[in-house]
Amino acid sequence: MSNTTVRQNWTVDEVEAMFALPFMDLLFEAQTVHRAYFPRNEVQVSTLLSIKTGACPEDCKYCPQSARYDTGLEKETLMEMKKVVKAAQDAKATGSTRFCMGAAWKNPKQRDMPYLVEMIKEVKSLGLESCMTLGMLDTHQADQLADAGLDYYNHNLDTSPEYYDKIITTRTYQDRLDTLDNVRSAGMKVCSGGIVGLGEAGKDRSGLLVQLANMPQQPESVPINKLVKVQGTPLENVDDLDEFTFIKTIAIARILMPKSHVRLSAGRDAMSEQTQALCFMAGANSIFYGCKLLTTDNPDENSDIRLFNKLGINKEAVNFSPFEKEKGIDAAIIRNAEKDELFYDATAQL
Question: Does residue 60 carry a catalytic annotation?
Answer without folding.
Answer: yes
